[in-house]
TrEMBL record:
GO terms for cellular component: ribosome. Residues 4-91 form the Large ribosomal subunit protein bL25 L25 domain. The gene is rplY. It comes from the Bacteria. Part of the 50S ribosomal subunit; part of the 5S rRNA/L5/L18/L25 subcomplex. Contacts the 5S rRNA. Binds to the 5S rRNA independently of L5 and L18. Residues 172-211 are annotated as: Disordered. This is Large ribosomal subunit protein bL25. Keywords: Ribonucleoprotein, Ribosomal protein, RNA-binding, rRNA-binding. Belongs to the bacterial ribosomal protein bL25 family. CTC subfamily.
Amino acid sequence: MSTLNVINRDESRRSLTKGLRRKGKIPAIVYGKDISNQTIAVEESDMLRLLRNEGRNAVINLNLDNNKSYPVMAHEIQYDNLKGEIVHIDFLKIDMKSEIDAVVPVTLTGESIGEKEGGVVEQPLVELNIRALPGNIPNHIEADISELNVGDSLRVADILDKLDVEVLDEENEVIASVQPPTKLEEETADEEPEEPELVDEKGSGDKEDKE
């Protein structure tokens, strides 16, 4: 569990919030069942490093002004759509002994048999909804597609026995499939370029006809 040092902030003054962003800090809030809501700020560089190294579902030891510490998770992260920057974070205090719900990205592994034959891999389900103890939530879930032929699908039910968490999605939902090559690609590959017709620019053909 990584430690993230944060500071208290004054929510009542918006000018201070803007000043925090200019100083490289992200406005945030921490809340939970047995604590009152507390407005805080976290160093942007520290948060980005934590997300990069441990992922979106990392369990964090939130150290508040070097005085109080809470085990938390980043329940919601708000981004500026234009700049791609984090503008606000909601930290949820958690009980390490109680299961919680989380959303985990799915990563496809392996090269499918069908893909080697020209098939196209599609992934309609890019995330799984799971329930687990905070310390058991993975950064991502791997789904091996190496045995899929053209026309085959990998469903949630096919990977359940490889997971140590409860999956909340329907078992028949398709994670990935291998589709046949599109008809347009096949026709383009089969077509041969036509040779251009020769045109007599001097009109020699007309001269011969007259003669």
